[in-house]
Queue: 2 jobs
Job 1
Amino acid sequence: MTGNVEGFDLLVVGGGKAGKTLAMDAARNGKSVAMVERDMIGGSCINVACIPTKALVSSARTLRSLRRAGDLGVHVDSPQVTPESLLKHKTGVVEGMVAINHKQFLDSGMDLVLGRARFVAPGTVEVELNSGGTRNLSGAQTVINTGTRPSIPPIPGLAEAGYLTSNSLLDLKRIPQRMVIIGGGAVGLEFAQMFATFGTEVTLVEAGSRLLPREDEDIAQSVAELLTRDGTRIVTGTSVTAVRREQGGVHLTLSNGISITADDVLVATGRAPVTSELNLPATGVDVDDRGYVVTDEHLATSAPGIWAAGDVAGSPQFTHVSLDDYRILKENLAGGARSTKDRLIPYTIFLTPELARVGLTEEQARAAGHAVRIAKLPVAAIPRARTMRETDGVWKAVIDGATDRILGVSLLGPEAGESLTTVQTAMLADMPFTRVRDMIITHPTMTEGLNLLFAAVKG
Ligand SMILES: Cc1cc2nc3c(=O)[nH]c(=O)nc-3n(C[C@H](O)[C@H](O)[C@H](O)COP(=O)(O)OP(=O)(O)OC[C@H]3O[C@@H](n4cnc5c(N)ncnc54)[C@H](O)[C@@H]3O)c2cc1C
Ligand SMILES: NC(=O)c1ccc[n+]([C@@H]2O[C@H](COP(=O)([O-])OP(=O)(O)OC[C@H]3O[C@@H](n4cnc5c(N)ncnc54)[C@H](O)[C@@H]3O)[C@@H](O)[C@H]2O)c1
């Protein structure tokens, strides 16, 4: 370390959702705040994750709607996408949000330090500035919010053959003719359906016995059927054993003996924490065996005055969870004891139609010893779905037979992420399912389906 150390009330290392929100908040409240960000103003979500992918999901949905417009009595000539037009749309959305974030950062009064931070002493980072030179910063309180990056499995030949990640695929230099996606989680599925709609021949290879292992088997099966219908070839229970680039494409050998040739391979096998380059031993912050920062339920690390938030802290990997980590830190940095325990965390996988879930699945509820009552509703039974001619999907509710409380729902259907919030609200309010069953809901909306779903509770 060379030069002076500049001290701040709050030092935020990595400007993800939790860190940037906390930094702005503290700065607006008169604290001296430095936030170090190496390259993405606004963090992963708006640059390379949620926002650009959902911008492209919107493109795929529009393309799909135009292709089936004839079913709704609307005649359009053959709609087209090009990599250039998609890139322009995606970049426009991202740049707009980055500009808003940048202005908010500066307006808050924080010291936005663009560069790469690494710890050099307890509570002190050295920042290699993007503009050249270094600065040494320390915080009375420090928050680590450096996120995750794509995790790449050690498949023989993969590195030599070259591969895409969710980051590089979003550069959209071209729309591949044939693409193999390794990994059937949220990233793999959203890209598979999107690119299948854009015209790519997609094969998705999942090592587990089914897609989406965190979902009930019947729901995962329905998702697989929808993706297959939309043109994705799904291979489960199989891993890629070797990859080789040859003339004519990339050649993949699978553990079931099948071989596939594609133009591109997208690796979507999960995420790895951004911690190895932070030199955490210098500040006494422990990491687990996968490299995630170890925190207690208050998001405190093993080092006094140092906290962690978001993906890097092992929190469930969603932007809205990172935002909730900010709420927790805001209280706890001021001496509170807010906890990450028992959070009710919803999520939506932005397929068409969406898969939205909150609470327990049937499998989880039974494993936890609940005497469950189940309801299932085909989306085709919801009048709004009929008006849109979007009748694919199924809604499922899991009810505690002893208390009539809603344990969880899985909603696979159009705009399911919007209807989900109504159920989440009922769960937070500890309402019995009968309150939602008998609630007067606007007709004809998708959320009205909740009347029908809860009317179908068996037993
Ligand atoms: C393709 C994809 C789609 C997704 N879609 C959704 C979605 O629709 N909805 C949803 O809720 N979640 C989605 N997620 C998950 C979501 O993006 C993450 O959970 C969320 O962005 C995590 O935010 P974070 O606060 O942990 O940090 P991040 O937003 O990852 O920010 C960390 C920041 O730290 C910076 N940084 C790292 N190291 C250093 C260093 N040494 N010095 C300075 N700065 C550093 C990075 O540049 C980065 O800006 C998606 C993820 C992916 C990959
Ligand atoms: N809409 C959303 O909210 C959204 C969208 C995308 C991502 N995310 C978040 O990002 C996180 C990361 O997503 P992800 O899809 O990369 O990870 P993931 O962990 O959700 O899924 C990875 C999948 O890859 C499989 N896999 C692992 N190694 C493999 C191998 N060698 N061969 C074949 N399959 C293999 C796993 O079995 C798993 O099903 C998610 O957990 C989610 O929280 C959220």
Job 2
Amino acid sequence: MPAAEPAAEHEITEADILAAERAHLAESRAALRTMREHTASLSADVAADWVSKQILESQLELRVAALADHPGTPLFFGRMDHDDAGSDLPVTMYVGRRHIHDGDEGRPLVLDWRAPVSRAFYQAGPADPMGWRRRRRFGFSGGELTAFEDEPLDGGAPGLPQPASRILTEEIERPRTGPMRDIVATIQPDQDVIVRADLPRTVCVQGAPGTGKTAVGLHRAAYLLFTHRERLARSGVLIVGPNRAFLAYISAVLPALGEVQVDQATIDDLLGEPTAREPAAVAAVKGDARMADVLRRALWRHLRKPEEGLVVTRGASRFRLAEHEVRETAASLRGTMRYGNGRTSFAKRLAHQILVRMEERGEAPDDRVQDQVARSTPVKQLLDQVWPKVTAEQVLFRLLSDPAELRAAARGVLTGEEQSAIGWAKPARSPRSAKWTAADRALLDELDDLIERTPSLGHLVVDEAQDLSEMQLRALGRRCATGSATVLGDLAQGTTAWSARSWKDVLRHLGQEGEVTELTLGFRVPGSVLDFAARLLPYVAPGLAVPRSLRPGAGALTVRRVPELAAGTVETLTATLEREGSIGVIVPDDAVPAYADALGEAGLAHGVLGPDPGGDERVLIVPASLAKGLEYDHVIVAEPAAIVAAEERGLARLYVVLTRAVSTLTVLHRAALPTELS
Ligand SMILES: Nc1ncnc2c1ncn2[C@@H]1O[C@H](COP(=O)(O)OP(=O)(O)OP(=O)(O)O)[C@@H](O)[C@H]1O
């Protein structure tokens, strides 16, 4: 029931309104509890058989989990009102994380933020009130409703900027501790457009650091699951992120939005963990989309000329196909379908030709005979000789270990230099004992798909997509071939040797048509810090719009030359610990142990961020290569010049590192700062 505004006999105070809204919150909480208890009481025994019972039980469990009331999370965060008697819209609606209805009458107490009608909460403004008169935002502390803020939608002059929302500002300024939070209460209109894009549409978001790309991608997944629940429950939604530490950081967002069934994976989880490493220049050649042609040729080179024709004996009769007939049959199928299907079709065609021979001799064989012939020993033997079963590993092994094979498959596609770069100098003994790099994994995946089709999911959210190689993008494209994708990234944060230079290319390799949208309003990094980092932009990604920050952040940036880096870091960290919030000490990868020792000796408790998610220490030493996508209230960066020198795209790495801070960034340097920063 909408909270009744108290009767106007006395002047309505803010306290009166707060009390009424708190009553609505209490009523909603009670209703959610009833909904949960009702679901928990449902029995799966009605299912007709054991399998259906298991399925129903797990669905009920998921539903109960989705109806959980997390005490720290408000059930609603906004309210819309109008007083137009002729309107079809409800007079009042509360917008929250999920639908809550009154058990007895089924009255909606809270509407899901993803429902079509809730769109107005994010999009309505004086220029287009969408039928509403007022937007109210609520402020919470823990689970308690502590504040509200009203915004008239009908009286304002269209086009004039709205006064800044205090609640939005507070939300953005809230110290960051622990994993990433959802932003459902404060999604901005341009973000909302991306979140609510239709399922069949692939969207690609170029966004400067902290513009909310990751947040938007996760909310889009939640929106799509709500809007196309059945379809996506069947086909699946997958979030692909750069590393496990990042996935752990974002892992709480979807469950907080009631979505507990979305998988998350790194590209290595999907394609297989690498067991070897290789120079970036070699990986860059292997990651190039031209490799797809090389692999196709390499695979089909496994077809062999028949040594002889086919002879099938049935009873006293023998039926023959000449060697040239077998050869022509194989040739007519070669490359027209997947290798595995081709093998099956080859057997069927041969059997059919034998059947024709039988008919020519007056027999009347039926389909069963054709199947028998296709599975007969002579056909199998011929199949193994001409169209052998192969695995992706066998094909890649032969390609990389046999220079003649590589030359034949790569002729006209890769230069001689490229061929020698990827060929193995010292091949392993066999495909089984071969070690595979991350780039090899994408090649194996391509081959797997050339042999058997890779199943497609319903929707993929790909974060930090600028860092994926063309071959990795093709691998992901296969996994959304009959679905769609949300592609997120920042060309300026591309740190791999094969990082994308254009989103059009990324979409092309992914095999998706889609629009590219740009987000430039930053929610994380204070303005002074963003301006400082943006000095690198002309060098790392000329042509990209310079990002603006929503937060001025005066005094947020300190750049200090120190005589000794470890001592300077200890001193800065000690001072920073006086302030609230998380602290990231970002240093060159190879310097991590030295900083860990220095902090340890100074008695400063800290953790070290590794590739796998770790503890939740307030102070973390972060190797520069793992900082992508993460954020900390306070960031201390030690020695930018060394971060730049450590890798080929070091300036882009520095840009990533300098844009992790929410409140303060302290840059410590002993060597001169990179000239691009000055
Ligand atoms: N509309 C919003 N309201 C409140 N906070 C927001 C909003 N949009 C983004 N944020 C916050 O801004 C921060 C940065 O968001 P996010 O990590 O999604 O940005 P990003 O574009 O992916 O950044 P990066 O490129 O550095 O990975 C997060 O703390 C996020 O919660």
